[in-house]
Design brief:
The complex is a heterodimer of chains A (311) and B (256). Chain A has 311 residues and is mostly helical. Chain A has a single domain, classed as Orthogonal Bundle (ABC transporter involved in vitamin B12 uptake, BtuC), CATH 1.10.3470. Chain A contains 12 helices and 2 strands. Chain A is globular and about 85 Å long. The relative contact order of chain A is 0.17. Chain B starts with a strand and ends in a 5-residue tail after the last helix. Chain B folds into 2 domains: 151 residues, Rossmann fold, CATH 3.40.50; 84 residues, P-loop containing nucleotide triphosphate hydrolases (Rossmann fold), CATH 3.40.50. Chain B has 10 helices and 10 strands. Chain B is an alpha/beta fold. In chain B, the strands form 2 sheets. In chain B, strands 6-7-8-3-9-10 form a 6-stranded mixed β-sheet, sandwiched between helices. Classes of the chains: A mainly alpha (311), B alpha/beta (256). At the A-B interface, helix 5, helix 6, helix 7 and helix 12 of A face helix 2, helix 3, helix 4 and helix 5 of B.
Chain lengths: 311, 256
């Protein structure tokens, strides 16, 4: 594989880490966030601080990348907990607006912290190591497994219940606030880890990378892949990260085509590529069982109607 | 005599309007009680106050001897009170089985880390949850519809599923908000047997809001009548039927 293709794959893998978290928050718990680039920024900067060599112009601690990933994720998770305490009692759209504000505020804070390079950015030094694809893939696999395990447990089902019907969840004994919080913190940890990986890949970070466009890109991938589907998020991250590259042929028009392609697919398939479905053996069994059940219901209704007519 | 549920001087004001005004009553353990009254009498508001969905303005609610006034809804559910809604609130896009399985969650204790890493307790308890959900579906005659998406179910079965979901929490007290709304006489009759059967089988107390007088009179051992947020009468079906105030509230005063 040439380095260009490998680079796209690495970017897709990095996006996927953040998208998986957002998928849990938006696709399974039903909370829309337009501020996850903010959590990526926190991860990226904390990660850079932990990993950049002390000998650089803007020095760091020179610790290994894995420490950076864990530290960046933990820092983003901690901040999300604080943000959640204030905002998670807000209803639907208001939470969404609050996250938008958080994302932009975070970017502006880093714009003004000169210790980390401010708006000029922070050259992290080391040349890009294409071997890091293995680290990215490892983080992807771990994230997929953990999120998949979670959504197929009572805790994940409680999150889905909140998405489906919040009032009914409450009287079913579900601590809505707690599960929204868990979902938010996990999504922020993953966004933070993705931020560290992105900084490491770009070998340079500045606040502009983590603007509203980045947050929007993440949520578009989640919706495009299909709400409530992990395999959809994986597919969405791969396709939508590669799409702008494929469209380079159109030069300055490529983002117009990108937008048009997304609109077209959302019109023809509003539930997203794999909304509510999983491309796993048990997921496919479930789709088939539901289809059978629907057909059975329809034939039964038809029979009753014809019997009623005969009477 | 004190009951499993004690409502004392319960009041709820929305601005200047007292939707529920100083209402007290008691629900006997193991019985089926009815809460009736004309539209807007405050019946559903009382359910919302008991289950913590609304904050109480004045008064208190006691359940099994302890105060539950203004506790959070999920904690009240945890204590053993569950309910259904007047306008059905199922997890619409989930299958029948998933609706019930979700509601079984309180029978398992495994933590989030145990779920993330699929530790032994997760595996063991999850298996028990699934068995419990299947059992409930079988008892309540929904096994055949196990994989149907909840909002594709016929109306009567949606009501039934909502009751099954409530039962999945092993409640001590079940609140049913107009379970027969929109049902034909046949379905209403079936529902009546279902409610009576559930009470026997699951050893629970039932409090039901209902407009089908026939159902209420035949099913309920004691009845509380509300009108304009206040308690109008309380007693057995026969007492209520003969009470001139109740007749007046429902039919208006005669003469003009």
């Amino acid at each position: 594989m040439d380095n260009y293709t490998l680079g796209i794959l690495m970017l897709a893998g990095i996006n996927l880490v953040a998208v998986l978290g957002l998928s849990l928050l938006t696709g399974f718990t039903g909370l829309f966030s337009f501020g996850h680039a903010g959590f990526m920024a926190i991860g990226a900067y904390v990660g850079a601080f932990l990993t950049v060599s002390p000998a650089r112009d803007i020095p760091g601690l020179g610790l290994p990348l894995v420490v950076g990933i864990l530290g960046g994720g933990a820092a983003a998770g901690l901040v999300s907990w604080l943000v959640g305490r204030i905002t998670l009692n807000l209803k639907g759209d208001y939470f969404c607006i609050a996250t938008l504000g958080f994302g932009e505020a975070t970017r502006l804070v880093f714009n003004n912290v000169q210790r980390f390079g401010g708006s000029r950015g922070w050259p992290l030094g080391a040349t890009r190591d294409m071997g890091d694809i293995w680290i990215i893939l490892a983080v992807d696999v771990v994230a997929i497994l953990l999120v998949a395990n979670l959504v197929r447990s009572r805790h994940g089902r409680n999150m889905i219940a909140i998405r489906e019907e919040e009032l009914a969840s409450q009287v079913t004994g579900i601590d809505v606030f707690r599960y929204k919080m868990v979902s938010l913190v996990i999504s922020a940890v993953l966004a933070g880890a993705a931020g560290v990986l992105l900084g490491n890949y770009l070998t340079f970070i500045n606040p502009k990378i983590f603007n509203l466009t980045k947050s929007t890109e993440l949520i578009i991938i989640v919706i495009f892949g299909g709400l409530g589907s992990i395999s959809g998020s994986v597919l969405g991250a791969l396709l939508l990260t590669a799409l702008p590259e494929v469209l380079r042929f159109f030069e300055i028009w490529r983002l117009v085509f990108y937008g048009a392609a997304v609109i077209l697919i959302m019109i023809s398939r509003p539930q997203g590529l794999l909304g509510g479905m999983e491309l796993t053996p048990s997921g496919i069994r479930k789709i088939l069982a539901e289809r059978r059940a629907r057909l059975a219901l329809r034939t039964e209704a038809a029979r009753e109607a014809s019997e009623g007519g005969a009477r | 005599m004190s009951g499993i549920l004690e409502v004392r001087g319960l009041t709820k004001r929305f601005g200047g309007l007292a939707a529920v005004d100083n209402v007290s009553f008691s629900v006997r353990e193991g019985g089926i009680s009815g809460l009736i009254g004309p539209n807007g009498a405050g019946k559903t508001t009382i359910f919302n106050l008991i289950t913590g969905v609304y904050k109480v303005t004045e008064g208190s609610v006691l359940f099994a001897g302890s105060e539950i006034t203004d506790m959070e809804p999920f904690r009240i559910a945890d204590r053993g009170i569950t309910r259904t809604f007047q306008n059905i609130r199922l997890f619409k896009n989930l299958s029948v089985y998933e609706n019930v399985l979700t509601a079984c969650h309180m029978s398992a204790k495994y933590s989030i880390p145990e779920a993330l890493f699929r530790l032994p307790r997760f595996v063991r308890e999850e298996k028990a949850l699934r068995a419990k959900a299947e059992d409930l579906l079988a008892i309540m005659g929904l096994t055949e519809r196990r994989d149907v998406q909840a909002n594709n179910l016929p109306y009567g079965l949606q009501r039934r599923l909502e009751i099954v979901r409530a039962l999945a929490l092993d409640p001590k007290l079940l609140l049913l908000d107009e379970p027969a709304a929109g049902m034909n006489p046949d379905e209403t009759e079936q529902l009546m047997h279902l409610i009576a059967g559930i009470r026997e089988r699951f050893k629970l107390t039932v409090l039901v809001i209902e407009h089908h007088m026939d159902l209420v009179m035949r099913l309920c051992e004691s009845i509380v009548v509300l009108n304009f947020g206040q308690k109008l009468a309380e007693g057995t079906a026969d007492e209520i039927r003969g009470d001139p105030r109740v007749v007046e509230a429902y039919l208006g005063s005669g003469g003009n």
